[in-house]
Amino acid sequence: MPDKQIILFDGVCNFCNYWVNFILDRDKKDLYGFSALQSEYGQKILEKIGMSSTDFQTFILVKDEKFYTKSSAALMIVKNLSGPIKIIYPFIFLPKFLRDFFYDLIAKNRYRMFGKRNVCRIPTEEEKAKFID
Question: Could you tell me which residues are beta bridge partners of residue 60?
Fold first, then answer.
């Protein structure tokens, strides 16, 4: 998937999986591929950028050999989606510490608020081309 931007997400988080589905439905330009942070590929990326291989408090956007996390990753992604969600992109101009404060509030409580799966998300046959193991 060299021509795709890759989104690394917590594969057992219900909230994260909701957003993967949300992005899949609105990625009309076919820009994004996906991989769970728990996967072999996800673990390699975490090691490469010096992040914990067991603490999945963020998702990561890999774009042109650059890595974006937390609110920066979210806003970079929504900018390219179809529909009204892209109207939140201008929040990118707020200071990162402020944006990430709200991101971290949700990330720290996501399992309690939205639940957790026992296993990582398994893509459907139609989605398999967009996922890296």
Answer: 8, 69
